[in-house]
Amino acid sequence: MNHDVAVDESCIAAFRDLRGKREVNAVVYLVTEGTDSDVLAVGEKGNLTYEELLRALPADKPRLALYDLPFATPDGTRHHRIVSICWIPAATDDGVKSAYRHAQTALAEAVDAEQMTVVATTPSELEYHHLTSRAQ
Questions:
Q1: What backbone phi and psi angles, to 5 degrees, belong to 25?
Q2: What pLDDT digit, counting tens, does each position of 59-99 carry?
Q3: Bridge pairing between strands 116-120 and 38-46
Q4: Each residue of 57-66: b (16+ CB within 10 Å) or e?
Q5: What is the CATH number of the domain that holds 41?
Q6: Domains contained in the chain, number
């Protein structure tokens, strides 16, 4: 895979849906190999529970996901924070790992929004309580 990653306009539109619509709280992206550069494309989007989001991340294939993470602070105040998850299973080829890391950066630059970033190689790194403790 190439190190240059082009962010398709549909990826930016999906992010806008995530930020602006209540019926979309998760977007899962995938990187496809192009001739001159890799291309980030929307794989799935919708209103997913956290468990459904985790099931949308294949155990053996990397994905990039944006998720509007709901959580409560210790005093009970409810919050939401957009989390950028770069899911890269440990057995992933180094070139593919690099492509997904570059895609995460390219997407963050394209949407120009503050978000918490996570790179995970094992499911335990994506446990809900780990993310919510970082989000606070």
A1: -125, 0
A2: 999 999 999 999 998 899 999 999 999 999 999 999 999 99
A3: unpaired
A4: beeeebbbbb
A5: 3.40.20.10
A6: 1
